[in-house]
């Protein structure tokens, strides 16, 4: 595509249409969103689980030309949603070449561009921005200054150009002016100092600021979007009320509503491509990994205000595959098939993502994580085997059978031992596993059955991953030999006179 390179060429092109010459960025977002709605296109590709909740509210905010904020706990795709807004921007946006704030050639706001167009006229050079160049993101921290966001006086510019300090030519623009005619996103908005928040809402409302005491008119064309933790955003003193009042829409995000949605997100985001070996992740492994996050979000030992990020199952899946990959490489296997034991080996990717309450701290992160895995295995097992009779398998262990399933052991070696467990091979059908499957698949499925029985305390397992019969709890010793709650009757006792 040959794009106009001078102001004269631009005036003769499609960019000269009156609507495009004066259109603001919020109108641009609205126009392109309307086109997507009419053509029934996916508005935010890769955003899963929000079709009936968050996305309709986002659409309404954009159609209303609002600045908006996404409120949600960590790992709820807030930043991903904001970055996806660039899909609603035009493929190319013309601006005066060399301009720090990407001035509109038809309506320049900075002194430098007005002077340049006055001198060069139709020969003024034009450059273009693609959508990704029009998105500026800043993580709010308490040390962010007005100079970072708005700008500052640059004495070196003044000295080199012979300008007075009050001249616009001496200004070094901050992030917000450099996002002119684009989208400016601030993550964790309440972490900004109060005076910075005041500067933000002044720009939003009036378009003028003061830099080092010099008034400067900046009628910026910016779509402002924010993210925040709900607790911080609603806490008194964390957010300046006038700024909150100028944010048009407040949209709440959430974690996946179902395990299936969570699995889809995890599979989309996790790095699962491993060169050289075939990868097969059983459905029940994905389910157990996802249920760990679901159970953690409900566990009283884990801080609900901090949340349990969707990054937890993503990291766990990557670590689980890596542990299975390590086993396959060591044993010369050609297929990577994760087992439940690999999830226990992935504890480091769980413990670091849990903010524990006092009770959890007393138990320890490892113990809490192991409890979550065991509970997740139990729930996943019930989904496949709730109505199946496993008494034959349990009885094998009760008669003295035991088997060790180390996470480093090769599939063929383990499969020989599993073959001695009567009835186990026939119980794998609900998992879609056939008797002639690859050894790696058979071992993984069999281990899931044994881990499920262990999670329901029908068989035992040692710390060395040796499955044995469940130890029966000792019956409490009775205080009397008769085994009664009352003392034995007294005999040959003379009655009182």
Number of helices: 22
Name of the CATH class of the largest domain: Alpha Beta
Give the biggest beta sheet.
Answer: 5 strands, parallel
Beta-strand segment tally: 16
Mean pLDDT: 88
CATH superfamily of the largest domain: P-loop containing nucleotide triphosphate hydrolases
Give the percentage of residues in beta strands: 5-15%
Low-confidence stretches: 479-486
Q: Termini, distance in Å?
A: 121 Å
Short structural summary:
With 497 residues, this protein is of the alpha/beta class.
Blueprint (SSEs and pairs):
Layout: H1 7-11, H2 18-22, H3 25-38, H4 54-63, E1 68-71, H5 78-84, E2 93-96, H6 111-120, E3 126-129, E4 135-139, H7 146-149, E5 151-153, H8 155-161, E6 171-173, H9 175-178, E7 182-187, H10 194-205, E8 208-211, E9 214-217, E10 222-228, H11 230-234, H12 241-245, E11 249-252, H13 259-269, E12 278-279, H14 283-296, H15 311-330, E13 335-336, H16 340-345, H17 348-351, H18 358-363, H19 365-385, H20 391-398, E14 403-404, H21 411-418, H22 439-455, E15 459-461, E16 466-469
